[in-house]
Specification:
144 residues; alpha+beta; eight-stranded antiparallel beta barrel; 1 helix; 51% strand
Length: 144
């Protein structure tokens, strides 16, 4: 009886210990994602320079990554008038390489810093945000 209890507890620890790692390995880009925030990550030391929430208007945007390698985006933005405007829907091709953590959308490659079942961090640009002469990563954080 003690052996069975020990095996059950050990198995529980194994599954619990591996769960977060498995989320990263088996997470899929397929599905509908919404912008959550934008971050800047230091190119010098990896620290966070800023971590700003997306505007309430931009949060209405969606990025629907389909299993047939097309992405349908519907973008909202605070236009010149200051009103939240639907900028329209666009369909693009995409591919995702989980080994190299790279997503290519309409031929433009971007680094994926993090992908779990609930969150994806995509490097959208490089810019020297902190003025140290080294480009920093501008990261778009998407959530499901």
């Amino acid at each position: 009886m003690k052996k069975i209890l020990f095996l059950a507890i050990s198995a529980g620890f194994l599954f619990t210990a591996c769960k977060s790692d498995d989320d990263d390995v088996y997470a899929s880009v397929v599905g509908v994602w919404k912008p959550s925030r934008e971050m800047a990550v230091s190119g010098k030391n990896g620290s966070t320079i800023y971590n700003d929430p997306s505007s309430s208007c931009y949060k209405k945007s969606t990025f629907d990554f389909k299993s047939n390698n097309t992405m349908v985006s519907n973008i909202f933005d605070d236009g010149m008038s200051g009103n939240c405007e639907n900028l329209g829907t666009d369909t693009s091709s995409y591919s995702y390489d989980p080994l190299n953590k790279q997503i290519v959308i309409d031929g433009e490659a971007s680094e994926v810093l993090k992908l779990t079942n609930n969150e994806m961090h995509i490097v959208s640009d490089y810019s020297d945000e902190d003025g140290d002469g080294i480009d920093d990563k501008i990261v778009l954080v998407l959530t499901r």
